[in-house]
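pls read this stuff:
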Amino acid sequence: MVMRRRISYLKLLIICLTMTTIMGMWLHYSASNCHCPHSVNNNKNNNNNAVAPRDTHVQKPPQVPREEKDEEVIDDGDNKKWGPHKLAVVVPFRDRFEELLVFVPHIHNFLNEQKVRHKIYVVNQIDLHRFNRAALINIGFIMGRDEGCDYMAMHDVDLLPMNPDLKYGYPEDGPFHVSSPELHPLYHYKKFVGGILLMKREHFEQVNGLSNMFWGWGREDDELYKRMEEVGLQIFRPEGIETDHTNTFRHIHDRQRRKRDTLRVGSQKELQFRRDQITGVDTVQYSIVSTHKMKVEGAVATIYNVKLDCNTELTPWCNHQK
């Protein structure tokens, strides 16, 4: 009887050892084939980059929405709802950057108030010749005409309209002289047409634009008056303006810093008073070096850097130095 119990205990012990061995082998096999994330201790090849297990019970701080800044509104002045006509504001230019920074937003806002479709063309002379305002205006007219503008404003950069009753609308009947002699701050003679003059495309082409022979300052407007008079164009001027020459316009030119080039050389003295029968918008010679868009306080202007060609046989004074 005792013998049988010993045998039973022995069998039971053998069975337990066998089961323990099998369980151990099964646990080892399961662990080696597990695809769970490695712990810090099991990651032998990347101990320094071990990542602690996520604590799903930690509360994250609330996400604050990021404020988006409003982009600056850019208005090119060409609102087609304002009518069929589009104005080319042509600015003959050289070395007056600080004046341009004032002019562009001022004239842009002034025209927007009147609902005048427009584009600002700054024709910048970058060659070494003397300044030729008339030739630059001819170039600006060509630019505007080719881009669909049906009338233009020959506009000095240093002359800012201040009275909202000064109208820049389409000059159907004839050239409209905005800065008329009784309103301009400096020039008051009867035949003066400088400063700001509006002309529709057909009339500008009818007089063949301006003479290209005027190198230096002055007289090109007086020659333009002769052209308009010759073809019978009537010049219109503002009416009912309650301001005068002291406050209708703001003149921002600094005579001390930028002295006028009034030098007259050789036959230039005599020819400046004659009607030029040779040159005009159809003969202006130039090259466009570069074109740039400039944005000032939301207003946009296009700057054309141009080089003028000079016929030294016709106008030898284009390169004369003081």
